[in-house]
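Batch queue: ligand-bound targets. Current item pairs a single chain with adenosine-5'-diphosphate. No template structures supplied; prediction is de novo from sequence plus SMILES. Inputs echoed for audit trail.
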Amino acid sequence: MTDKSTELKSAESPLASRASWLENYQPALRIHEQGTVVSVGDGIAWIAGLPSAAMDDILSFDDGSRAMVFDLSEKLIGAILLHETDDLTAGTTVHRSGRTLSVPAGDSLLGRVVDPLGVALDGIEPPERTTWQPLETGSPPIVARDFVNQPLYSGIKIIDSMIPIGKGQRQLLIGDEGLGRSSIAIDTVINQRGRNVYCVYVLIGQKRSTVVSTIDTLREFNALEYTTVVVAEAGSLPGLQHLAPFAGCAIAEFWMRQGRDVLVVYDDLSTHAKTYRELSLLLRRPPGREAYPGDIFSVHARLLERSTCLNASYGGGSMTALPIVETQQGEIAAFIPTNLISITDGQVYLDSDLFSAGFRPAIDIARSVSRIGGQAQHPRIKQEAGRMKLDYLQYLELEVFTRFGARLETSMETVIDRGRLLRELLKQDRLKPVQATFQLAWLIAFNDNRFADAKPEDIPPLLATLEDAVRESTLTLDSERELWSKAIVNWLPVPAEKGSA
Ligand SMILES: Nc1ncnc2c1ncn2[C@@H]1O[C@H](COP(=O)(O)OP(=O)(O)O)[C@@H](O)[C@H]1O
Ligand SMILES: [Mg+2]
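Prediction returned. Tokens below.
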């Protein structure tokens, strides 16, 4: 109390207060650490001094730019630069800011394109700061987690029927470059329109043209309004590329903790791993397998463990993650792909042979799995898809023989015919996600043999007819199977020869 009143009084007469401050001044030792830049280049700086600096501390340079402590050794500190600057040279002084990195989060980020520090890249005013979210936090404890129990519809026929994704799941999109991994992620984001799921799309080390076309596609399909795009393109500082997925995760985490469902795409973590390798080698850490540093596994695990489904007492929010990883010539046993396969709850594998044979999305069912999504799948879809998947897997086994022109028994030929039909039914163009009710409808139609005898070229118009009819109809996923069957008989023309038998 007394302190406050003297403060108030002194505020009235500043001169008097200064005099009394001088009178009472006790000289004391105040420690103020100052470091010096020893060398700078390739997006990192080596710094001498600052004995109490800790990992992840933010340092500020005299030219106004900042860096993050990334490596501590006995004599020098290695820091990753967070700003492009030409003024930083050997000899520049450095101070500790006493803080770690955080990004702005909140609804003001919807529809925005930001860098990993939250700086607007879309040329509009900076996003209004609602709150700051730390880039690195611990993952939610076990007691806060719930089982995955709600489906997250990708709108892609193969995925929603055979490799279903649940809210809070981490599903890896894996395959060579150019086979449609990003297309699946973008379709899934577009399909969240009107479903009350916020999305975060993180672009790591991508060409500017890819960045621009991704954002344009999201905007064109009105998906940007519920999405935040976090970009660290190929030309940006390696430090920023490394931080991008953590920034995206932090933005998503804020919404998840508010009880929302969030979908986050990391496009892609191979590039992220390469950037991390580059930084680690520059910082002279010992290289391990494929020259990656030993802790790359823990870096990716730390990121993906933050995706989860929170239980009701923790708000019931969820963060679904779609990390993307690139393989070379389909080699999934390489270091980064195997790491990510073991961290995630399943993978969607894209195959180049399927892609070149014109089967798109080129998803190889035999090598794709969803370990937990089935629990969240709608029971009706699960039942119908189960029957269909058996047919498909049988076909895949026999298909090999047909390549050698072997003569097959009639029963086998039926399997092959059904499989070929399925191939046509499962084809789907990008940017054309479908409704869950239509998924159920085509599955029932297939299981009821409604497409038998249709030629491959008849399939797309038949599916289009069915899709329109489903959209007009009042049937839901919970409607009786019999009602669906009957409706489908009316909607689809009767198969030519065999009649409706
Ligand atoms: N379902 C699809 N139907 C037709 N073309 C597709 C489909 N999915 C992807 N593509 C095409 O494949 C190419 C590569 O897709 P992209 O998603 O960029 O691959 P990735 O991200 O794996 O490198 C693009 O030209 C895209 O138009
Ligand atoms: Mg891509």
